Amino acid sequence: MNDAALARALATEAGKLLLALRDNEDSNAKALGDEGDRAANRLILDALRRERPDDAILSEEEAADPARLGSRRIWIVDPLDGTREYGERRDDWAVHVGLSIDGVASEGAVALPALGACFCTQYPPVLKPESRPLRMLVSRTRPAKEAIAVAEALGAELVAMGSAGAKAMAVLRGEADIYLHTGGQYEWDNCAPAAVALAAGLHASRVDGSPLVYNRADPLLPDLLICHRDRAAEVLGLVRGL
Question: What string of pLDDT tens digits covers the 242 residues of the chain?
Fold first, then answer.
């Protein structure tokens, strides 16, 4: 399999495992989320070490190996993005399997298992046009004041949603138009979503307009904008004016 196909296969299989675990587990939300994180992480990392033994790996659920900084190719994984939503048995959680090459989110897949969907860089969907009024995605628990301010300036409706992957794919699916995040993320939160969004022809960057750069010593990557390319300059300008 090529890299995109491998990412898609692993995200899909991890999603199936998570669904089965959720459907057969009656523990509380936190315990279910913790077990889901462990099980999906084990499945994905075991497969990557078998299929791509020369590549580095950065996962939310593993201690970061400093040796990864010397690698051109690094798989960046969030085995369960939206642990809270998963534990609460909601639909807005995801599995991220991304590949950064020379610091660029190059290949990847984002599975939305509860919706029976998986998006990858190999088969990007055709984008739908923006809606009127625009729809701005925000965290359902911690909506960022910058996103709220930009939404007000654009006359956009706010759409609350869980995981970063679910929000990014909502733009891809035409369920929303702008995902502006300033509340703090790490590389595993947005590598796979950014790769898939870029492959589909969307804009993906930091909120100051600079590129998203991966495999840094500090994996903190705290802000993100995903939207239609024709909308990006206006949104970035509004953020600068805040």
Answer: 999 999 999 999 999 999 999 988 677 888 888 899 999 999 999 999 999 999 999 999 998 889 999 999 999 999 999 999 998 999 999 999 999 999 999 999 999 999 999 999 999 999 999 999 999 999 887 788 899 999 999 999 999 999 999 999 999 999 999 999 998 899 999 999 999 999 999 999 999 999 999 999 999 999 999 999 999 999 999 999 88
Strands 56-59 and 73-81, sheet pairing = parallel
Radius of gyration for the chain, computed over Cα atoms and rounded to the nearest angstrom: 17
Q: At what angle do helices 229-240 and 145-154 cross, to 10 degrees?
A: 120
pTM across the whole model: 0.95
Q: Vertex 241, ends 239 and 242: CA angle to 5°?
A: 70
DSSP 113-177: GGGTEEEETTSPPPPPPPPSS-EEEEESSS--HHHHHHHHHHTPEEEEES-HHHHHHHHHHTS-S
Distance of CA 226 to the CA centre of its chain: 11
